[in-house]
Amino acid sequence: MYSVGVYLFTIHFFHERVCVMATAAQKRIKSISYAKYGYIFILPFFIVYLFYQFWPLINTFIVAFKGNTVHTEEFVGLNNFKDLLIGDSSKPFSAAQQVHEAFFRTLGNTVILWVGNFIPQILLSLSLAVWFTEANLKIPGKEFFKVVMYLPNILTAASVAVLFVQLCGQSETNPGAINSLLTKFGIVKTTSAGLLVNPVEFIDGVWPSRFVVMFIQTWMWFGNTMIMLMSGIQGINPSLFEAASIDGASSGQVFRKITLPLLTPIMAYTLVTSMIGGLQMFDIPYLYNKDGSASKYLETIAALIYKYFHVTNQEQNKIGYSGAASVLLFFITLILGCIAFYMTRDKDEIAKKKQRKKIAKQLKAESKQFGGFSI
Amino acid sequence: MSKMDSVYGKAKDNYRAKIVFKSTVLVIWFIILTIICLFPIYILLINSTRDTHQISNGISFIPSSHLFDNYKSVTGNDFKLNYRALYGYRNSLLITCSACFLTVFFSALTAYGIHVYDFKLKEISYTVILLVMMVPMQVTSAGFLNFMAKLHRTGHYDPLILPAIAAPAVVYFMRSYMKSSFPLDIVEAARIDGCSEFRTFVSIAIPMMKPAIAVQAIFAFIATWNNFYTPNMILIGVDTKKKTLPMMINALQSSDVLNDYGAVYLAIAMSIVPIIIAYVALSRFIIAGVALGGVKE
Q1: CA distance B275 to chain A (A)
Q2: From the list B56, B113, B135, which residue is nearest A41 (CB)?
Q3: First to last CA, chain B
Q4: How far apart are CA B295 and CA B297, in angstroms?
Q5: Residue A183 and residue B245: Cβ atoms within 8 Å?
Q6: Mutate which of B33, B95, B138 to disrupt the A interface (most A C-beta within 10 Å)?
Q7: Which of residues 114-133 of B touch A (CB under 8 A)?
Q8: Of A143, A194, A236, A373, which is most buried by a Cβ count within 10 Å?
Q9: Residues of A in contact with B132 (CB under 8 A)
């Protein structure tokens, strides 16, 4: 017994010595060269990031505290924020009040367009994702359907917007495809000369135009969301579905009791990323019009920021407001991002950590109980 | 016994009938969705083969014979709108290819640097990359344009190409891919064989990361090709011949000036068709890439 103990001890001792030597050697090798390559390899990324993205972000904050029109070099403190958020209701035609109204109008438009696109999109994507992953259904050509449903997502958004301007034309003499289709179904009447009577105002009408933009957004994004949710469903342990089907659960029950609860984190993630994406909505609402400037009811917050800094005429420059609106948008995004991060963090890992701490505490308490001897 | 058999058989038949019924209903619904997805694109393609008179007479599902006439008027010099498709292709391709190459190469390099080497700022730099992934372009654009205007870089291509070097989301994707499928022993082996660090990256790491690089290259290409916001912001007051394709699309809004709707449809089609062809060829990779969560616009 004793000799074995000594033997083990010796082995342990030598092993330790060898280990120490090895780490020393490794350390020497490392200190010779390799760490510096790490810095060299990541250097281009950080230089470019600082120059093209980080400094512009700081610059946006700086600009937000500076003046507009010809006073872009003057420091004005929080005035831009005050104008955007509070305005100047005593003078309805002052620049401040107009900027204030425009800010909340565009924020409202953004929220309306986002909600109107997200709800149908998530319902459609979720139902499709469930049906596509249900194993016992015999659906031919699943791959084909997936490919077709994702197709609108890769099209150039600018082209799609202009295409829908053409398709949704509301002119009486030269209607777009949609109004012609409505005429064929008898929803829109024609005069004897072939002119349309009251065609649906898909471009100038407030709600019809909003509806078209929501439709385009849903049309472009439901395939993407569907595929993301599908990969989420495929990540669920299949034995759960098996157990449920052996217990005789209907597909509705499976969906309510298994799929939906286990899909909640990825749904939350989709929700928040879609919200952040929705706040940046630009191309389609900006281009969906005939005269080159976004319509009052479609102008989003991103389009407003863009309009304010994108002027060639120094007199109309509103870059201060643009910066201030960007800063507000940044903080909204930051909050949403934190929520997304909080929702998608690894809950199992956190629970395990807690448990480990608990066990350690318990052990400590027990060892005290036994007079400081640990077992 | 026979009674039980028949009951069992009935239940089985019932179950089967139910499945067949549900599948049929779903297939019909999927076909309807397919039609909705393809309808605008189909009308676009059909209308680009028709002339103005036919288009204003209503929709049709059969192609006509005016494709070549429309093509001649779109590419001709007397096309009144600021749309020069061939220049658009050239400029878009130039910007997109360079940006795409830079994104993929430098993202792989950064991910490799963080993954392979041990240095003090390793974890911090990775955390920073994860943090900045969320900052949207729209937020920094006011400061970006202001800064570029001060440097007199508006109207040039480099503010559109060089920022592609820093793509945090792509770095994140590549790092996750490396974690799962790039053993560090290979780097050790290369070192023992006397391979320089940079060469190890170029001739060992890059070939091993081909799948990740392919997916990210496709998405970077699509995103840059479709980008309207940044080029329209940076390329202020440039000649039509220097604009990118999505910027030219902007000019087609005022199509009423032209009164040649066939040509307008063809002009839109010319901006969409190349990307559809590429998609059909690469759809398998693209769908797999989306499922990996590798894309966030």
Answers
A1: 7
A2: B113
A3: 63
A4: 6
A5: no
A6: B138
A7: 114, 116-122, 125, 129, 132
A8: A236
A9: 49, 53-54
CATH 1.10.3720.10 residue spans of chain B: 85-291
By 3-state DSSP, what share of chain B in percent is helix, strand and coil, each rounded to 5? 75, 0, 25
Tens of each residue's pLDDT in chain B, 297 residues:
556 666 667 777 787 888 888 889 999 999 999 999 999 999 999 988 888 888 777 777 888 888 888 888 887 766 767 788 888 899 999 999 999 999 999 999 999 999 999 888 888 999 898 888 878 888 888 889 889 988 988 889 999 999 999 999 899 889 988 988 888 899 989 989 988 999 999 999 999 999 889 889 999 999 999 999 999 889 887 888 888 998 888 878 766 666 778 888 888 998 889 899 999 998 888 888 888 764 443
Contact A52 B37 (CB under 8 A): no
pTM, to two decimals: 0.84
Beta bridge partners, A190, equal A196
Tokens found for residue B32 = 């309807």
CA distances from B123 to A106, A344, B117, B130, B293 (A): 40, 20, 11, 11, 23
Contact between chains at A326 and B276 (C-beta distance less than 8 A): no
Q: What CATH architecture is B85-291?
A: Orthogonal Bundle (1.10)
**What is the fold of A106-168+203-360?**
MetI-like fold (1.10.3720)
Q: Do A280 and B293 touch (CB under 8 A)?
A: no
CA distance A64 to A78: 8
Q: What angle do CA A286, A287, A288 make, to 5 degrees?
A: 100
Q: Where are the domains of chain A?
A: 106-168+203-360
Contacts of B40 in chain A (CB under 8 A): 160, 163-164, 167, 219
Q: Å from A1 to nearest chain B CA?
A: 41
Query: Does residue A323 contact residue B142 with C-beta atoms inside 8 Å?
Result: yes
A337 to chain B: nearest residue by CA?
Answer: B134
- What tokens were used for A77? 């403190």
Q: Which residues of B touch A148 (CB under 8 A)?
A: 34, 37-38
